Amino acid sequence: MRRRLAPLAVLIASAALLAAPAAQAAPVPKPPAVKACSTAATSLAVDRVRRPVNHLLLTLTNDGKRPCYAYGAPTVVFDDEPAVTGILQDSVPQAVVTLEPGDSAYAAIGLSSPGGPRGRTVHHLSSWLANRKLQAVGDPATLALPKPTHVDDSAFVTYWQSTPDLALTW
What we know:
- By secondary structure, the chain is mostly beta strands.
- The chain has helices at 5-19, 164-167; strands at residues 35-36, 42-48, 55-62, 68-78, 86-87, 97-99, 104-110, 120-130, 136-151, 156-157.
- Strand 2 and strand 3 (55-62) form a beta hairpin.
């Protein structure tokens, strides 16, 4: 005599599953959207470097509580000059630099070349950060330059890099 318990066991198990309250999966929180770095949540510093000669290092530090993207290159203006410093296109990094809170990005500023045109002494620089469309946005940060700082019309700024060594290779 064969018993037909298997279908009965399946029926009981199915009824138990239907009677049990459905377990609610906890919603997975979305990570906060990463936005462009702004002067409101970052700090900028400029320092003279020993090598290469005629260079400064611009350091952008994320002082905020969320990550941000250091897009493109900083817009740099010396003193109150009407023109911005040219961006060295060869310095484009492979990826946008992402700054976690406390992290820094770096851009080199080439000041002059031998025999460069229109040499002059400058005292401060103003710098704007860029948005995703690589447009300068927000309020500028104004920084005093190390004394003496001489620039000429060959001056340039690099794109943001993840390390000082990468920035200063240009």
